[in-house]
Amino acid sequence: MSVVDPPIAERHALWEDALALPSGAFLMSFGLFLLEQIGGVSGGLAGVAILGGYWTGVSFGLLFFLVNLPFYWLAVRRMGWTFTIKTLITVTLVAVLAEVHGLYMDVSEVAPLYAAIFAGLAIGVGMIMIFRHGASAGGFGILAAYMQDRHGIRAGYVQGALDIVVVAASLALVEPFILLCSVLGAVLLNLVLAINHRPGRYFG
Question: Which pTM does this prediction carry?
């Protein structure tokens, strides 16, 4: 019986990262822009930034950039400087691009259900592009990984608990139907990640 050698993972070239990170950030930012336009909400720190914008009137982009700042030192400790710098670039791009979309299109009449579905798919695909090029969109994922490594608390539990807090907080600011649409979008987002981002399936 012959033994097939496992494929050798080849690192992405710098120019590939330079194309992929902005592309992923563009898709993520457009999905978040759509959710904000319908008065919806997302999970993670993006959801915190959206809710903060509803409450304070401060732009999503600025809040998203600011709420991610405390998490970078965790990223350095756990993932190193390369990952952290790529994540900082990605978060900055998402924050800026989320404010740019509205300058070029008017989606004020988009159906909330359609917007939430499209947003979930776009954010999911964007996150996969970012993950596969050694970065993240910042936020709770970094904290969850740190808590698992440092304190033995499973990352999924930490991530789930934090997302529940965000959803609970949104009950006071988001209309019930819009919240249901947002939850559907979040389910689709997580399905995209679960189906397309499994360890061992990708060797780039």
Answer: 0.85
